[in-house]
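user: Please review this fold.
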Amino acid sequence: RGGMALSESVAGATTFERRVLRSAGEHHYLRVRLELPDGGARPNVAQFKQLVVSALRELHGEAGAALPVDVLTYEEKTLSALLRVVSSGLVKLWSALTLLGFYQNRRCAFRVLQTSPFLLALAGNSRELVLD
């Protein structure tokens, strides 16, 4: 969240100054993957979004279900998505996804792979690069 910056004092001695980034932005972004047992239907994007909303409702009630969450990208093949949530709702969303255990009476689990207040930070994952 913050960093150390070097600054020179009048006497010439090096001092450290702590700079803290107070508010990175109004949104947080999460890269998530839904893990389902083999077989059975995979949710489409609308069903995936409904699953996220129902997870929020289950843990946090109607106020949680009203939390603005956007599915920016979704890959049905890998069940991976990029979600955007208001920063104040990050903990609610993360906890609701973590505690969700079922999709259509089948065991499931959400894995939060990455999170950042900066969308660009999640744009590429060096672990997924294919080098020639």
Observations:
- The chain has a mean pLDDT of 83.
- The radius of gyration is 19 Å.
- Residues 42 and 77 are 8 Å apart (CA to CA).
- The helical segments are 45-65, 90-99.
